[in-house]
């Protein structure tokens, strides 16, 4: 036998290329099994296709891929009943690194008029060599369909390979990996099954893993997304959704479609029916799975923007070019078009379902804050997303939209007013609203952290500016409506400078206001710069520098202020009272007094009078 063994050198700079494959091309060692299974699946599909014109190549009825671990012998065998390889094929396709038989065959198919072309996974000729990440020697025994000869290709990946006659009872290929000492985990049946379920669960050819003398199924074998919608029951969709996302609820929406035209792809996406246990505010990357010809490639292709990261599902394409690693996707125009198409389809679905207010509320209460991130960061979809937002309001029960708000605006009202804070219930009782309620002006109540950011980016809706009621001085005199009957205003000429002097740099300004009715004081932010909620967030993040001191607004008609104005006119020292006014205003806005202990003492002393 040794006399018939032929030794050959690889047809490439094998040392450099194999080192690239083993140490740089793939980030996970388990990828070797995906690559070998993909090659085997291609071989079976290729034989099935060629059998259409040559009946002698017909696949056996039990065609499958077998994975057989041998822990004692430290060997792993992957067997298929595919097209197989001749001696010339072995030398050409395994003896020349980066020359892909699949790619050459796919090129020949491009001129074929056959309707039932196989869907081939391989595009580059290096996937096979990933076997050397886990094996120090690889043997390939193959028999070409239609031939009686079998050949053995063998190599340790160090510069040469051998070819020798062999025996195989039927057409197909056996790949035997002599595993490295540190790769014995890949001889555990459970580990092999989990890898196949992760990477090749939906290859249509049955894959089995030998365990205790029995071949156990390792893949589902049904690409649900490739089936017509008419053949899939709601129960089957739900089952797949739960399998895919490892969840137990039912999907709120199921999107299943095939895109044809400039790009061809199939998508099956799910919008969850409940918020996941792991907060969507944490991990921001979309995890929609990218498949190419049913083979899972990655869930890190960012097929949807971060603000749609709650969407689960699969996108499967025939058109996407891959680089040699399969893991690091090229930034191709095709991928960009798929992303755009999938994103637009999800937005369209949300718009349609938003017409049913009751159903849409279920979704919005789970994922509304995430959509607001899109308004902040995505200029292309900002206007569409603005129409999908919902808000609590000072004027109506339940949720409302920006469009509904605009429709209810008072005559003379120039802006969409909002109040941002940490708690919706507290916002509804905020003294910031008093003047607006008195004039019948509606204010949107926003209680998510993101609400301090996105209105600035949206800027306006239907030509109406969005404006925080805590920022600057708002003039409501143009708004139609009967003014409330208020007490006579006190003379503030002496009180205002006294309070400002007492508070010093704790406030940027002290001024009288007519936007308060029942409260004595309120805080405001300067006209330019962050509003009060943004200032609080910056302070919590340790970035309060530059935010500027707040403005203290005083109600000249309030009994307390009238009394203080009288004391000020009498040259009284109002330092303690000024401090109390500022601390009261801070408390009303959900903040804490500057000196909680001192504040408590001053309140106790005031109560004792």
Automatic annotation (TrEMBL):
C as annotated region, ranges:
537-609
- One Pfam family, please name it: HATPase_c_3
Q: Which CDD domains match?
A: HATPase_Hsp90-like (cd16927)
Single GO MF annotation? ATP-dependent protein folding chaperone
The region called A is annotated at 1-326
**What InterPro entries would the database entry show?**
HATPase_C_sf, HSP90_C, Hsp90_fam, Hsp90_N, Ribosomal_Su5_D2-typ_SF
Q: What is its main location?
A: cytoplasm
**Keywords on this record?**
ATP-binding, Chaperone, Cytoplasm, Nucleotide-binding, Stress response
Can you tell which superkingdom this protein's organism belongs to?
A: Bacteria
* UniProt: ATP binding residues: 35, 39, 80, 85, 100-101, 123-128, 173, 326
Q: Where in the cell is it found?
A: Cytoplasm
Q: Return the GO cellular component terms, semicolon-separated.
A: cytoplasm
Stored PANTHER family: HEAT SHOCK PROTEIN 90 FAMILY MEMBER
Q: Which family is this protein grouped under? A: Belongs to the heat shock protein 90 family.
Q: How does it assemble?
A: Homodimer.
- Give the protein's function: Molecular chaperone. Has ATPase activity.
Q: What is this protein called?
A: Chaperone protein HtpG
Organism, as annotated: Falsiroseomonas stagni DSM 19981
